[in-house]
Here is the input.
Amino acid sequence: MKGMAATVVDKLKGHKPEVLIDKLGERLAYERTGVRLYEPLITKVGAASSGPLVDLAMLTKIRDDERAHFELVGDALRSIGADPTAMTPCADIAGVAATGHLQVITDPRTTVPQALNSILMIELGDNAGWDLLIELARGSGHEVLASQFEVALKTEQEHLALVQGWLKQAVLDEGT
Ligand SMILES: [Fe+2]
Ligand SMILES: [Fe+2]
Here is the structure.
């Protein structure tokens, strides 16, 4: 009985699609911002005189992944009858929150490790964001979307490991 009651509650939660739409809107904004953050990072890394610390080809691949994720979320919104061009509250906040990182990365005076530190925070948020979205999609009965989002999360885990590795190497090279 307890299990049944829980299922009913889950179904009821699924009847508030605006929460899923808001978080999908946030993901859409975040992934688009991801592309905008990786562009100047690629430029910064390309212009850096120090050794081949960061793999430019990998960096470009990550940027393309973020773009693919943006498209995936846009398709997801359309599949549930929502408008991907509509600004949701969480999407708006995601944009505001990212402006500091954008400033850090685009500032020509910041170093590659400083920019990597910003992108690390973005990737941490990226991973947590997809993780939550998977739970929300599954909990509201969107199993197909949840499975697609799991593939995206795997990619984000790779991003995180790469960025964390680059930052660690950069800081250890500098400080030890
Ligand atoms: Fe992402
Ligand atoms: Fe990412």
In short: Helices lie at 2-13, 17-47, 56-79, 89-106, 112-139, 143-175.
